[in-house]
Design a protein that fits this description.
The protein has 472 residues and is an alpha/beta fold. The chain has 2 domains: 172 residues, NAD(P)-binding Rossmann-like Domain (Rossmann fold, 3-Layer(aba) Sandwich), CATH 3.40.50; 247 residues, Orthogonal Bundle (N-(1-d-carboxylethyl)-l-norvaline Dehydrogenase, domain 2). 54% of the residues lie in helices and 9% in strands. The chain has an 8-stranded mixed sheet, sandwiched between helices. Strands 8-9 form a two-stranded antiparallel sheet. α11 crosses α12 and α14 crosses α18. The structure holds 6-phosphogluconic acid. Keywords: Gluconate utilization, NADP, Oxidoreductase, Pentose shunt. One of its GO terms (molecular function) is NADP binding. Homodimer.
Length: 472
């Protein structure tokens, strides 16, 4: 029998995605570079193996597919994707399509889409979020590529995606790299969200001297309110989990050096290229980078061991909850602004509300807040700012006071909260009608005759620097 879709790469994500496809009633042909992996996969698939067609060669994979053929690639991002594309394309016919479901750099997706288009093949960049569980039981899916080819596989994608009140958390965002770009920004926001939760954990651990299980219980409590989200939930569970070997809290036996595969960094790089500055996301990327300098931090701790601090009163649990909520909304504000800037630059016509909607279930940043965010975007964001939206301005007003106390407390106690501090600085900047860039403009004009605009609209665009007074 002919399979509706093929899949290359039976790592955990690829294997789970295949099972998800089969479970939803679609015959799927699978291929893995090591054939033994394919055999083991089919052997472990139980009843679902009836809808799984194992292929030992690319030729066999292609031969088992109904036309137009569609093959999902789920291999490590980068060169491995190009290698699979090179193996598949000579076997394909015009109208066939390749779908990259990995965490690709959207520039690669644009390049690949253009190259395949030359061969009259379609290329779809598909961001998939939700980790292993999501892939198996319903991820959030962000599609980029030509809409006609997406129409061919849409029934499969919507069937395997997570559902929010029955609606699939899958959407087509635009051509070529649009889906992978939305996924990249999702991951940037994921980094900020994780970092902010970790900052609260740090304040409670090092400021209040609370034990992990107590902090976990607080997070579990927060997960019943407006902060209800997958990341708050799992953080609570993690903090309540003991290490089976030592009986200590598991976080106490984990080395405090964070890994990163690149998507958070890409978000920042692309944002900067677009003239944006997602400072909360950058803070999260920076915190991970700094965390990896363990030996340096140990030396720093010894060197400045004698530095005393005079901490303010620690914020209450309620204030920390409000601060986390406000900072999180600010991170999303910055994330949506990147999407909006990219949409303009690449002419994608991205539907930001649709991004918020597909993130409501299945993905790592799923949270109760996203419902309101989607609604706020549909209502129209004043100045493109989520934090100005009537639905959020009240929360932000309340939360800003708590955020300010939290950042002040952290500074006074000598505890780093880079994401919170950046969120607050951004908020305070966006509510300051007269900033300090008048001086920056004067400095630029002084040393480079760069010129400035006058508030009275006057024509003289340069300062009288020749006669400037030198202060000694
Ligand atoms: C998801 C995750 C997933 C993965 C990333 C982030 O949406 O399911 O974002 O894609 O966890 O690779 O990984 P790093 O933290 O290693 O950058």
């Amino acid at each position: 029998s002919q399979a509706r879709i093929g899949l290359v790469g039976l790592g955990v994500m690829g294997a789970n995605l295949s099972l998800n496809i089969a479970e939803n009633g679609f015959p799927v042909a699978v291929f893995n570079r090591a054939g033994s992996v394919t055999d083991a996969f089919v052997a472990s698939a139980g009843a679902l193996s009836a809808r799984i067609v194992p292929a030992k060669t690319y030729e066999a994979l292609i031969a088992s597919l109904a036309k137009p053929r569609a093959v999902i690639i789920m291999v490590k991002a980068g060169g491995a994707v190009d290698a699979v594309i090179d193996a598949l394309t000579p076997l394909m016919e015009p109208g066939d399509m390749i779908i990259d479901a990995g965490n690709a750099d959207f520039h690669d997706t644009r390049r690949r889409e253009a190259a395949l288009r030359e061969k009259r093949l379609n290329f779809i960049g598909m961001g998939v979020s939700g980790g292993e569980e999501g892939a198996r039981h319903g991820p959030s899916i962000m599609i980029g590529g030509n809409p006609e080819s997406y129409a061919v596989i849409r029934d499969i994608i919507e069937a395997i995606a997570a559902k929010h009140e029955g609606a699939p958390c899958a959407a087509h965002f635009g051509p070529d790299g649009a889906g992978h770009f939305v996924k990249t920004v999702h991951n940037g926001i994921e980094y900020a969200d994780m970092q902010m939760i970790a900052e609260v954990y740090g304040l409670l651990r090092d400021g209040a001297g609370r034990r992990p299980a107590e902090i976990g219980a607080l997070f579990a409590d927060w997960n019943k309110g407006p902060l209800k989200s997958y990341l708050v939930e799992i953080s609570g569970r993690v903090l309540g989990t003991p290490d089976p070997q030592t009986g200590k809290p598991i976080v106490d036996v984990i080395v405090d050096m964070a890994g990163q595969k690149g998507t958070g960094r890409w978000t920042v790089i692309e944002a900067l290229r677009l003239g944006q500055s997602p400072s909360t996301i950058e803070a999260a990327v920076a915190a991970r980078s700094w965390s990896s300098e363990k030996a340096t931090r140990e030396e720093g701790a010894a060197l400045f061991d004698d530095l005393a601090s005079d901490p303010l009163l620690i914020p209450s649990d309620r204030e920390l909850e409000q601060a986390l909520l406000a900072a999180k909304i600010i991170a999303y504000d910055q994330g949506f602004k990147i999407l909006s800037a990219a949409s303009g630059e690449y002419e994608w016509n991205l539907d930001l509300a649709s991004a918020a909607e597909v993130w409501r279930e299945g993905c790592i940043i799923r949270s109760a807040l996203l419902d309101d965010m989607a609604a706020a975007i549909r209502e129209g964001l004043p100045q493109g700012q989520l934090i100005f939206a009537p639905r959020f301005a009240g929360l932000i007003r309340e939360g800003a006071r708590a955020l300010r106390h939290t950042v002040s407390y952290a500074a006074s106690a000598g505890l780093p909260v880079p994401a919170f501090a950046n969120a607050l600085a951004y908020f305070d900047t966006m509510r300051q009608s007269r900033g300090t860039a008048d001086l920056i403009q004067a400095q630029r004009d002084f040393f480079g005759a760069h010129g400035f605009a006058r508030i009275d609209g006057g024509a003289d665009r340069h300062g009288p620097w020749a006669g400037a007074v030198a202060h000694s």
